[in-house]
Amino acid sequence: MQDYIVEMRHITKRFPGIVANDDVSIAIRPGEVYALLGENGAGKSTLMSMLFGMYEPDQGEIYIRGEKVAFHSSNDAAAHNIGMVHQHFKLVDTYTIAENIVLGMAPMTKKFGIFPCVDIKRANREIAELSARYGLEVNPTDKICDVPVSVRQRVEILKMLYRRAEIMIFDEPTAVLTPQEIDFLLQIIDGLRKDGKTIILITHKMEEIKRIADRCAILRRGKLIDVRSVAGTSVQEMANMMVGREVSFDQNKPKADFGNAVLSVEHLTVENDHHFPVVRDVSFSIRSGEIFAIAGVSGNGQTQIADAITGMLPVSSGTITLDGNVITRMPIRSRAREGISYIPEDRQGMGVVMDFSLQENLALREYNRSPFSKKGILQFDRFREYADQLIGRYDIRSGQGAKTQMRSMSGGNQQKAIIGREIEEHAKLIIFVQPTRGLDIGAIENIHRQILDERSRGAAILLISLELDEIMKLADTIGVIYNGELLKTAPAEEMTSQEVGRYMMGVKEA
Amino acid sequence: MKKNNYLLSSRLTGKHSSVWVSVLTIVLTIITAGILLLLMGKNPAAAFYSFLQGCGLAPKENYGGGSGMLSDLSDFLNYLAPMLLAALAFIVAFKAGLFNIGIAGQMLLSGFLATALVGYSKDLPAGIARPLVLVTGIAAGGLMGALIGFLKYRFNIHEVVSTIMINYIISYSTGFFINNKYVDMLTRTSRVCTPQSRLTLTNVQIAGVSCKVPLGLLIAVVMAFLVQFIFDRTTFGFELKAVGMNRQCAKYIGVGVGGSIVAAMAFSGVLAGLAGVTYYLGYTNTIIPKTLVGMGYDSISVALVGNSSPVGSIFAAVIVSIFQQGCMLPVALT
Q1: CA of B252 vs chain A CAs: smallest distance (Å)
Q2: How many CB atoms lie within 10 A of CB A185?
Q3: Within a domain: residue B252?
Q4: Is residue A252 part of a domain?
Q5: What's the Cα-to-Cα distance from A17 to each of A20, A388, A403, rounded to whole Å?
Q6: Which of A15, A314, A358, A420 is the most buried (most CB within 10 A)?
Q7: Do A266 and A231 have their domain in common?
Q8: 10-residue averages of pLDDT along chain B (334 residues)
């Protein structure tokens, strides 16, 4: 038996305007959980895409079980028992779970002895057995579009197992999961390790690495910084190596200096398309210099509150007042002009136009005003200038600067662009919804600092987050939402995170 | 890494690659057609040459009295004008995320109205008749487009469904009126329009041969550059593109999405209307009742071969028109 099951030697990969991997060498032992840690855009996914045959390296060699390989497609990689769970799942929505898993290598049968067709009964049976064996509970006949994200991920894992993968690559598997689902996934990964599989985990979350990984390679801006045994390395050390400087986990929050009420929401009710109230009789107000955080389990109406304030959703009843003006029925653009900035939850779906360039996206709030346009004609010089300023100020990294297409940028940098664009409006009220979801620690630290800076500037801030830690760290006032109702509103220092957690579960008086 | 969604991203980015896509499409078309011709036992080179001959881009062996290569060329350009306008109509809607499959109907409606309202007024001088034809085409197409946009925005009726249905309505209702009021008993089509209302000058002697001068071509080329400018440089075009690529984001930045949809369809309809009057009061000068022109659908391929670039579609329109117009000759020869 060789020492290493996977070896990647001196790998270099360039894309237009960027060196994604610069002379990276890693070696992975059979049966270990090997973590790749790095910020967004550090080159982790690119490195693994090469191992999975989606790209070919410009320089360097890949060895599997000591044998040199050159993959031209992911089929070649699959033939060497390598499997990958992508960050964005590759599943056919309208197929059943079993159909998705066997797709491409389905068990065949001959109907009436001649007509070849897929033996779906056998596939269902096999999938049921497989899922029972690994504790990955799924119902093989459910359609993908009907099952939640966590189950889709299980389907992806089963897909690898069905293809007898021995080396399994997980690309940011926990980004889309809730804390409970993360626990479950880590158990599954541990089970796979006990079963002798080799796991490569791409992540930027230190806690997960601490909990599950044996060794950890740290990448920064395409270069391999170090490979450490996880047991002998502290979270702080890993974070510092990943970001390349001293990271502070505790932001020192300046003393609060509240002014007058900027936003007040009274008896707000919002209905969904089926006339079912998703926000019920919610009232709160935010003063200037105050961070009002809404805590709650996902899907309890928090994003609808943000959408109602910004005008994306119509208000059924109640009033919204901004700086003394009632804005309940005002058009979206007028509200923005009155002083509302909005960092939406769905970045790619709402926050940016993916097929616009970075400079166009950065100008989305300003394009129809002087100096960005004059008499209806766009002034691209000004677009360019403004984009260059923001790229510097908010550390937005992209392959070709201001002209880079949004679609080709990493999720973290897309979010930086949105936040930069919205903060630059210097609005009276800034609404952040899930501002740091899926981002790495360096980016999170920056965004938290920006939120606190805006608070010091005197903005009223509405923070909606599923991360309790984030809320406890930043909020001046916490409102807990459950089933569309604000169950409890109190100054942050009067509540512990346990109490907030209990209200989030709908316990009225703790 | 994220793979590009090809159809979306090709709409406006990667100038070089988009040109290559168009060129490759054309080359593959010629190769495929060549193989088919070979299988039929014909000489592809001769066939393609005859396409060019048919369009007046290559000389024929002999010509009838008073005509020459230039006559064929002018015929070709006469056909090109409505083709390009129709392609632009498709592009405008497509960039705003709308699929205007009703161009043929919009062409017919505007052509019919211009014929009925202006085309038979023998007393109108050309200086008034021609602008009136254009205005009628613009108004009829624009209003029809706006209606389709309104149906989509207000009642959520998909434009593909509404335009297909409206195509039939227009085809049969105009057919009814032509057959009852405007029919030429001999040809069974509508009576020809007056020369002073027609957008093509006929029997113009150039270099000793009789040619047609399509005034619509000038309008079409100007429109191509205008549409390009609107989408590249104006806030209006910027908003239409944003609506086309991400309706949710357009709403989020405060673009009136409903208004944009109506505006885009009205604009598309205006161009289709212009295509209609240049076709029915230029290329043909008559309307066959109850018949939608194939050009309404050919224009979709023109737009897509041109990679939905307005200026690029000038070239695509030339190529597709060569196939359409040039095929008259080989068919006649065989």
Answers
A1: 7
A2: 21
A3: yes
A4: no
A5: 9, 16, 12
A6: A358
A7: no
A8: 38 54 84 91 87 87 84 92 97 96 96 95 93 97 97 94 96 95 92 93 88 94 96 96 95 95 97 97 93 92 90 91 77 48
